[in-house]
Design brief:
The chain has about 400 residues and is α+β, with helices and mostly antiparallel strands. It contains eleven helices and ten strands. A four-stranded mixed beta sheet has the order 1-4-5-8. It has a four-stranded antiparallel beta sheet with strand order 2-3-7-6, with no helix packed on it. The protein is globular. The N and C termini lie far apart (about 55 Å). About 50% of the residues are buried.
Length: about 400
């Protein structure tokens, strides 16, 4: 991957002078330790020179290059657990994952995507894998030598995991998988998939089991590649009598829902962090535009309407950051954060959407030119309000937790 902007890429506008110091002020908050600040400073410098890529380039190839570069740079060791398996520590530090995602998202959405999917795609192995499974997969994930994917969603089972129809039945020393998975990130380029299927030990969510399925397993095919407004590898998978050895099962039969939720709990807060990265970049772009664009004999920033909007944007970003890193800090301290993670994810993604929309508005017609930074951000933020639980699902989770606490009291 080139370490400079490709000649056919839209030139990246240098963010507003002082923007770097401003967006790193939160590292002084009591949620963090000195090591977190050092990591962000190093990653910010690394990402500035290694994440530029041509607008409209081959997304599959770009993602492969990014995974390899992130592995070689040592960043993917923070996405897996277990020093013996290439991880930076024996547990995943949520604050570190969030800070990495925020920093990468600030620079490039595909770099954030590549990092996030290595973590999410292998997270179940970190948490529930056997010694053999961890040794086989995690070291390669951490080194950027294997691409991971998380296959949970189905055409009729997205937020409602209990409606899952993809099934597996015992067959000799293994299982036969049949059915369809869709909206699978890294679909088509992954080397392995963590797949959740119905095995029928009990009704609903209690009858689901997780398996690690290598991409070249007979009976697994990429049925369709899916194009979305912010391009990244996405596919529909089809399983037809796909034979998976019992040794590839993650956890016990019927524990798949537990495996999925535990994995999502680790990474859901990091979705909020990615939204923060997008929002901070949009805010820096807006500041740069407001202070340089002249209208009616003054700059755009001289108008009170602009100042009011900038104040709203900055306040929203700080509020979202506080919720995000509160949740990450609590989880690293061993606290259950179902409600807090939902609050962070909902607030950060919705705030980022408003901040980015305001930035586009400040750019006027230039803001909707394909390849402009704010135009790219406008497309990239939209999916974050949906995946890993849409905003409306987060509202239900928050309300459920509040009512549960009220009942307990």
């Amino acid at each position: 991957m080139s370490e400079t902007t490709p000649s056919n890429a839209v030139p990246a506008r240098t963010p507003q002078q002082g923007g770097k110091a401003s967006r790193m002020q939160h590292l002084d908050w009591p949620f963090f330790e000195p090591r977190h600040g050092k990591l962000v400073a190093a990653l910010d410098q690394w990402a500035a020179g290694r994440t530029a890529h041509a607008h409209g380039a081959d997304v599959d190839a770009t993602c492969r290059d990014l995974v390899r570069a992130l592995g070689e740079g040592g960043w993917l060791q923070h996405a897996v657990a277990g020093r013996a398996y290439g991880g930076s520590s024996d547990t995943i530090d949520t604050r570190t994952v969030c800070l990495i995602r925020e920093t990468l998202a600030y620079h490039d959405g595909l770099a954030d995507f590549a990092f996030a999917m290595q973590g999410l795609g292998s997270g179940a192995i970190s948490l529930f894998g056997t010694t053999e499974q961890r040794a086989r997969y995690l070291q390669r994930v951490a080194a950027g030598q294997a691409i991971a994917a998380f296959a949970l969603s189905e055409p009729e089972a997205g937020s409602d995991v209990a409606a899952m129809a993809c099934a597996a039945r015992p067959d000799g020393s293994g299982y036969l998988l049949n059915g369809t998975k869709t909206w699978i990130s890294n679909g088509g380029i992954a080397d392995f998939y963590v797949v959740f299927v119905r095995t029928g030990e009990a009704p609903g969510a209690r009858g689901i089991t997780a398996f690690v399925v290598d991409a070249d397993t007979p009976g697994l095919e990429v049925a369709e590649r899916i194009d979305v407004i912010a391009p990244h590898p996405l596919a529909r998978l089809r399983f037809h009598d796909c034979r998976v050895p019992a040794a590839q099962r993650l956890g016990e039969p019927g524990q798949g829902f537990k495996v999925a939720m535990a994995t999502l709990d680790v990474f859901r807060t990091s979705v909020a962090a990615a939204a923060l990265g997008f929002a901070r970049r949009a805010f820096d772009e807006a500041i740069g535009r407001a202070t340089s664009r002249r209208m009616f004999g003054q700059t755009l920033a001289d108008f009170q309407l602009t100042q009011s909007k900038l104040a709203e944007m900055a306040t929203g970003i700080d509020a979202a950051a506080l919720l995000t890193y509160r949740a990450a800090w609590m989880r690293d301290g061993g606290t259950r954060i179902t409600k807090e993670a939902a609050m962070a994810k909902m607030t950060a993604t919705e705030t980022a959407q408003r901040v980015i929309d305001a930035a586009v508005q400040m750019f006027g017609g230039q803001g909707v030119v394909s390849g402009e930074t704010v135009e790219r951000l406008y497309r990239e933020i939209r999916a974050l309000r949906i995946y890993e639980g849409a905003t409306e699902v987060q509202q239900l989770i928050i309300a459920r937790e509040l009512l549960r606490s009220a009942g307990a009291a």
